[in-house]
Write a structure and sequence with these properties.
Layout lengths: L4 E8 L8 E9 L3 E8 L2 E9 L4 E7 L8 E8 L4 E12 L2 E7 L4 E10 L2 E7 L4 E6 L5 E9 L2 E7 L3 E9 L2 E7 L7 E8 L2 E7 L9 E7 L2 E7 L6 E7 L2 E7 L9 E4 L2 E7 L4 E9 L2 E7 L4 E9 L2 E6 L8 E7 L4 E6 L1
Parallel strand pairs: 1-3, 2-4, 3-5, 4-6, 5-7, 6-8, 7-9, 8-10, 9-11, 10-12, 11-13, 12-14, 13-15, 14-16, 15-17, 16-18, 17-19, 18-20, 19-21, 20-22, 21-23, 22-24, 23-25, 24-26, 25-27, 26-28, 27-29
Organism: Stutzerimonas kunmingensis
Family: Belongs to the CsgA/CsgB family.
Keywords: Signal
C-alpha cells in the first residue's frame, strides 16, 4: 500500500522507434503525492512541478543510441519534507542535464548521472535541514549547487574530468566533495557563509590538470580539509572569522597554495610533496598558528602574520644541493618562528 497518491508516467521509447522525442509534464498541488517517471530511448525531456508537503518524485531517464539523444529534466518542489530522486544513464549520449529546485525545509534531492559524457546537474535548495547528494560517474561532467538556510548538507561524488561549484549561505552547513577525476578534471569552488560550517574536498587524478579548488568561508569555527593528489594543483583559501581550522595536503606537481586568514584562534596545517610547491599565507588576528612542510623541490614559502602570539613553523626538506627559499614576517607580541631547511 502506497501512502502517496501516485501519478505514474512511463515512456519506453526503445519499443517505439518512430518516436525520437518524449516530453513529459506533470503538475501536482497538495500533500503526500507521488510521481514516478521512466523515459528510455530517444531524446527525452521532462518537467515536474509539485507544490505541497511530503511529496515524492522518482525519475529514471536513458537516452537513445547516438550521442545526439541526451535527456533533460526540470523538477520543482515547493513545500516541506519533499524528496526527489533522479537517475540518468546511457552509454552513448552526451549532455544529459538535470535541474532540481526545492523550496522549503527538510527536503532531500538525490541525482545520479551514470555513463554518458558531458552531463550537467544544477541543484538549488532554500530552507533548513535540506540534503542533496550528487553522483556523476563518467566523463566531463559538471555541477552547480546552491544552498540557502541552516543545517544543510551537500555531498558530491565525481569521476572523470568533472568540475563542481558549490555555495552555501547560512549557518551550520556542511559540504563534502570527492573528485576522482582522471584525466583533465578538477576545479572546485566552495563558498560558505555563517557559523560552524564544515567543508571537505578531495581531488585525486593525474595526467593532467587535476587542480584548482577555491574556498571562501565567512563566519566562526569553520573547518576545512583539502586533499589534492597529482596534476597541476592550485589551492586558494580565504577564511574570515573566529576559531577557523585549515588542513591541506598537496601531493603535487606543480602545487601553489595561496591563502589568507583573518580572525582569532586560526590554525593552518599544510603539507606539500613532490615538484613545484609555492606557498603564500597571510594571517591577521591573534593566537594564530601555521605549520607548513614542503618536502619537495622548487619550494618557495612566504608567511606573514599580523597580531599577537602567532606561531610559524616551516620545514623545507629536499635532497637537492640548494635549499628552497623562505621568508617569514611577523608583527605583534609573543610571536615565534621556526625554519628548517635541508
Amino acid at each position: 500500500m502506497f501512502a502517496h497518491k501516485p501519478l505514474i508516467a512511463c515512456f519506453l521509447l526503445g519499443s517505439l522507434p518512430d518516436l525520437a522525442l518524449a516530453q513529459a509534464v506533470a503538475t501536482q498541488t497538495g500533500n503526500d503525492n507521488e510521481v514516478i517517471l521512466e523515459q528510455h530511448g530517444g531524446s527525452n525531456s521532462a518537467l515536474l512541478l509539485q507544490q505541497g508537503d511530503a511529496n515524492f518524485s522518482r525519475v529514471e531517464q536513458g537516452g537513445g543510441d547516438t550521442s545526439l539523444q541526451p535527456t533533460h529534466l526540470e523538477l520543482l518542489q515547493r513545500g516541506m519534507g519533499n524528496q526527489a530522486t533522479v537517475y540518468q544513464a546511457s552509454d552513448y549520449n552526451f549532455g544529459h542535464s538535470a535541474a532540481v529546485v526545492q523550496l522549503g525545509d527538510e527536503n532531500v534531492a538525490e541525482v545520479v548521472q551514470a555513463d554518458g559524457n558531458g552531463s550537467r546537474a544544477t541543484i538549488h535548495q532554500q530552507g533548513a535541514r535540506n540534503i542533496h547528494r550528487v553522483e556523476q560517474l563518467f566523463y566531463a561532467n559538471g555541477l552547480e549547487s546552491r544552498t540557502f538556510g541552516t543545517n544543510n548538507l551537500t555531498e558530491v561524488t565525481q569521476n572523470g574530468a568533472a568540475t563542481a561549484t558549490t555555495q552555501q549561505i547560512g549557518s551550520d552547513n556542511r559540504i563534502t566533495i570527492d573528485q576522482n577525476v582522471f584525466a583533465y578534471g578538477g576545479g572546485v569552488t566552495v563558498d560558505q557563509d555563517g557559523a560552524f560550517n564544515e567543508a571537505a574536498v578531495t581531488q585525486v587524478g593525474s595526467r593532467y590538470y587535476t587542480g584548482e579548488v577555491n574556498l571562501t568561508q565567512v563566519g566562526s569555527a569553520n573547518s576545512v580539509q583539502v586533499v589534492q593528489w597529482a596534476g597541476f594543483s592550485n589551492f586558494s583559501f580565504s577564511q574570515d572569522g573566529i576559531g577557523n581550522e585549515l588542513t591541506a595536503r598537496q601531493g603535487t606537481r606543480t602545487g601553489t597554495i595561496r591563502g589568507s586568514s583573518a580572525g582569532n584562534d586560526n590554525r593552518v596545517n599544510i603539507d606539500q610533496s613532490f615538484d613545484g610547491p609555492v606557498l603564500d599565507i597571510a594571517q591577521n588576528g591573534s593566537a594564530n598558528e601555521i605549520d607548513v612542510v614542503q618536502h619537495a623541490a622548487y619550494g618557495t614559502a612566504s608567511i606573514s602574520q599580523t597580531g599577537d602570539a602567532n606561531v610559524a613553523v616551516l620545514n623545507q626538506l629536499t635532497e637537492f644541493a640548494a635549499p628552497p627559499s623562505a621568508a617569514i614576517i611577523q608583527n605583534g607580541t609573543g610571536n615565534s618562528t621556526s625554519i628548517t631547511q635541508r
